UniProtKB/TrEMBL annotation:
PANTHER family: PSEUDOURIDYLATE SYNTHASE PUS7L, TRNA PSEUDOURIDINE SYNTHASE D
Single GO MF descriptor: isomerase activity
Protein name: Multisubstrate pseudouridine synthase 7 (RNA pseudouridylate synthase 7) (RNA-uridine isomerase 7)
Gene source species: Durusdinium trenchii
Family the UniProt entry places it in: Belongs to the pseudouridine synthase TruD family.
Lineage: Eukaryota, Sar, Alveolata, Dinophyceae, Suessiales
Amino acid sequence: MEKPHDTAGSMQFPQHAVEEEVGISEHLGPGVPGFSGQFKSRWQDFHVHEVDLAGIELHLTELITPGAVAAELKKEAEERREARNALGPSFFFDSTTEAAVHDAIGQKYSQELLGFLQEQAPPKKETPPELPEEPPEKAERRDFLDLIAAEVKDGSKEARKKAHEVILKHFGSFLNTETVEAKPGEGEAGTRVIRIWMREAEKKVKTSMGKAAPEEGKGTRKGKNKSKGKGQKGKGDKGVKTPDAGGDFGALRREGWPKDRPEYLYFRLYKENCDTGEAVSGIARCVGRSAKQFTFAGTKDRRAVTVQQICAHRLPADQLRRTVLHRGWDKRVRISDLEYRADRLRLGQLSGNRFKILLREVPVDALAGSGPADQVSESTVSRAFEAVRTGGFLNYFGLQRFGTRQVKTHQVGAAIIARKWEEAVHLILGGAKRPAEVEAASDRPCKLPRKEGDEHVPLNEGDEDEGDQPQVKAVKGRGKGDAQKLVSEAQRVYLDTGDAQRALELMPRSHSLERCLLGARARALTNQEALQQLPHQALSLYAHAAQSVIWNAVLSRRLRHFGRSPVAGDLVLLAAQEWTVDQVLEGVEAEGDEPDETPTADGRCGTALPPVRILTEEEAKTVRLQDVVLPLPGFEVVYPSHLRDAYEELSQRLLGLSLADFSECTMVRLSGSYRTAAACPQDLQWHALSPESLQSTPALMETDVARLLSEREHNPQLENRSEKSQAEYSEGKGTGAVAFSCILPPSSYLTMMLRELMKTGV
């Protein structure tokens, strides 16, 4: 096949050394000059708004503040107190309640329930010492009322269910219901009854009887906090009743999840200068749940202001709202738009991300004549943006995909694919191959120590972005620098001596992957078994990084050898309908600017790879480079015939693997996927800011929180914040800025778009 002329010519651009290591070397429009500027010099200059599958751009729509929640709780408590105080001899049902209760339990039991509630005098107030106590009540009031289940309407299960629902709906603030079997002395023994409790009485009776119960049995546990572990049985526990086992009345029950309520709570997460995992873990701690119960479509950048959808399994919305009062709640995090849905949110279930970016320190000469997108001038900035708007950019996997440590994630992935388990463990722990002299020392069994609870301390605003490596949180009594020293020391101990137990004791809890591996090795698990203890998503990330570096290198090779236009032999996705050049293609990645795992080619979970077709010479003239796809190595993909040798050569040279190794990977199933060679931003808009306008503009990048605060009446706090921000954000002399906004598909990296704009490494 004749190779088309390479349009890059002899023009050379400076290359970032790290980019070349992961196969990034070309530009889609090398003839369009770039410009210099500062990207993410401040986290306030980088905003990301997730776009869901329905095409809705997610924003914070309300401010759920501690003050507002406290006011809501106070109002609810007053309403409950008023409802409870209304009980007594003068209490009567209103017409609506009377009709509903009569329909649910019948006339007879409606009258009995009314009489029961008329017995309940309001709670006694404490009598001042100087006043005489009130005389005792003549008639003893009942703690509960029993309704014979078989006599509630037709006695069916549906009738009992309706009775529970109606009573709790109208009187749930002070009544509780349960279905039990009556015991001797409670009427006809063995009869199934609906028991209606006064809530305060139920709690008092069941708790007091539960506390007295252990005195009657044998084997009462002694000592403080001597509880059994999960799934374990202690000696001498026979006959012991737990403190909430309420004797003959049963135990206090937690409120069950309503059957008619969807199981998943969705909410929008707004965060500032923290990563998604850190924010979700903080919320999970505050609500007393495991972080594993929370899911999201993709991680968002840490040094940014971001909004995304979060999903939690069986978490009540009112509980989450109350959690903002928790003393451990992260002030960098806000939530809104709480709603229940039937299906779980899965990784990759988003249609894209809206980016709003401010590039600072842009030379004035590059901005000269720059204007809006509909008034394109000949300035350097406008030419660069217009070229990307019309032609797109090369869809490389960004540097975030490969980590920021000395040992890259694709090297770990290569070791996993090659089944070099020991090398993979040591690479994750920050080293190279393991010294032979520590083999014996590292294989001895050690007991895994108990883990202490970690403290949540916000990161400093000036911390540098650490890519995909675990965030180093400051621990109590230590700064971030001290924590990093502990990490280095733990790595050194294990790599030099093989003492996993000692290394585990040193490793901060924030480094969960390293602790997982060290804990497994301390329990005498093999290296392979230790790797299998890691979350599957982490293992997939490593393996997919190895696929990604090959994909990048093949794309660069293809551009150098075959040019920047489609050629015969290239692959395109085969649409279900007749092929059209305007077809919108989906990508393979689950997230835009952060590395994530997505098992399928279209960014969704649970679907097979789409079929592809090979372009003929005539068809190649009718499609764009954005339509061409390249495969990531795996056992289900089709390789372009003119690039098959390039895949084999680059795989061997960069990773020491063959294509067959990807297909035969055992720890992570690598079916492969397809990714478009180029991507085009949607709704790309930009405008230049001169040095003078930077000083006079009150808010360069308005956040959702600032917008919501501005919608309130006069807010001095917001005004002071804006004035302070301008004082802090003074620019260098002779430089301006460029603000732009666009939507990128979940397959694309913003840093690669900026690389095309600026013609430098980002």
